[in-house]
């Protein structure tokens, strides 16, 4: 018999690879409509999730069970991780789709074939692969290492091939003897015929695990509020989510699990309280209360994994069961997209902001399968007719060991990151001058379809900005990447952060990064009766004893005239009621001199940083109570689809007697060196910069004296 520890380790790593593929395909599909703000037809690649439907056909099932074909599918699954190194996004999408298809075929065949111990280890390997994914994402600050750099991609690809070859050449894939024994393998378990219900429940559970627990920071982003009472920060409190998920898995191992089953786990009362109440708490409570509900939901989610997986693989029709699961998974994924991007999709008006319905449906599916399925969990199902109980016990010990190893690695990563981040904070030196910047960076995806936070961090660092607002920054959604650019950039740059509004509010998000402490902030949902929910944040920053207010906002689309009108009124009121010193950084989709622009200037009682710049459409910088020093526009160079805008200000010593600068110069030698913009971006330039480098353009930089 092959060494059990090697089997558990290999299956866990292959499970991690499967999760990587399932996580990566939706954002890759979504990238293309993100470019066009409309469906592109490439959404059809979601059919990759439906590959198990072929296994309903007898000849295909027998073909996939052939040891050589199964080996090819395993190697294809692993090899498609190399999609990260594809020359363009279209080829990467095609390769990723092939990887997802291969993975699901392997998953279906191996979960329903082989002896009980083999199947038990494979299914647990998939669950451990999820924990491994979360632990590795912690070390990469919410990113998945396999999709973060070519070096990491190559290393994981190499280890994946080693694991796949080990599975192929070990006793784990004895296809020659077992190719026609799938029915016997299922009958070795406590079989049940309800493949439709079990499939929907399992697919819903997979989506829930992706949606809310795709990364340990997500619960914090669902629960977040403004400063100073933001709720738990994702670092270090993401560790409680990881511990909750691990303890959920451990419940199925404890010796008194049968008592839990009889008195708690399967009772309607416990299900209602734990499943429904914790999900409702995550949706409707705030800050710490919502986070606690999310942690309870984490325990519940992983607690039900062994039970639902056991029922799922005891279905008599593997192809039908897995196809149904993936149909539910994809349907819920698209519903999640429709909840937020409803303005750009057909029928979106009927699904706008309906996450509560989606989460309720998922909990209903899980609950119904709980209450109607056979009352056995994974271990009990596989041990029904097994004479390998000592091996089962040993494999369980290896599974527990590996589970807590992954958790320990994850917690260590959080601890080291937290310590490093705290050392970076508070490094801003006392000064009267500060710079503010706005940039719509489209969830950190560059124009080639790759996530490029490294490039973003380099650009932000080179600007030297003290306060940064980034529009379209909430990437915590499963179709965008389940990552946290706010946390990533905050830790990389050593800036204080404000993430808002909450992910559950269905906005595209606003990120605020400040070199100086954020004293207070309020998250706002602007009136949006026709279009997507528009977010705004009002906040106060302490520039070493001098308080300056900031209002940052992302208005609705050009087509939504009523939305923009109402949003301009609300934001102008925020500006009017702010302190005497306020800076506005906004994306308002209106031309200079337009109705909305005028509303902000006149009712908000602010000035435009450069009222002579008529070639603007989206990004604007306005101010009151500070002295303008400079204004610059920097080309995006393919890092996003939008330019960077920056302004420099001075906080006056005497607010009642200062004079603003009214003379404009373009020769930097006429102003002090300490207010110059970084010469790394070149010199003054008229018109657009079309070169693939970050450069000043649009008749900037300008200085005021």
What's the structural blueprint in terms of helices and strands?
Elements: H1 4-36, H2 58-65, H3 67-79, H4 89-112, H5 116-139, H6 150-169, H7 175-178, H8 182-187, H9 195-211, H10 218-223, H11 234-250, H12 257-265, H13 268-284, H14 287-313, H15 318-340, H16 355-372, H17 378-382, H18 389-424, E1 433-440, H19 453-463, E2 467-471, H20 485-493, E3 496-500, E4 510-514, E5 518-526, E6 534-543, E7 546-554, H21 561-576, E8 582-587, H22 595-603, E9 607-608, E10 619-624, E11 627-634, E12 644-650, E13 664-665, E14 702-704
Parallel strand pairs: 1-2, 7-8
Antiparallel strand pairs: 1-12, 2-4, 3-4, 5-6, 6-7, 8-10, 9-10, 11-12, 11-14, 13-14
Helix pairs in contact: 1-4, 1-5, 1-6, 1-18, 3-4, 3-6, 4-5, 5-18, 9-14, 9-15, 9-16, 11-14, 11-18, 13-14, 13-16, 18-20, 19-20, 21-22
The tally of helices reads 22
**Biggest sheet statistics:** 8 strands, mixed
Strand content: 5-15%
Find the count of extended strands (DSSP E, 2+ residues): 14
Query: What is the approximate shape?
Result: elongated
What does this structure look like?
- The protein is an alpha+beta fold and 705 residues long.
- The chain contains 22 helices and 14 strands.
- It has helices at residues 4-36, 58-65, 67-79, 89-112, 116-139, 150-169, 175-178, 182-187, 195-211, 218-223, 234-250, 257-265, 268-284, 287-313, 318-340, 355-372, 378-382, 389-424, 453-463, 485-493, 561-576, 595-603, and strands at residues 433-440, 467-471, 496-500, 510-514, 518-526, 534-543, 546-554, 582-587, 607-608, 619-624, 627-634, 644-650, 664-665, 702-704.
- The protein has an 8-stranded mixed β-sheet with strand order 3-4-2-1-12-11-14-13, with helices on one face.
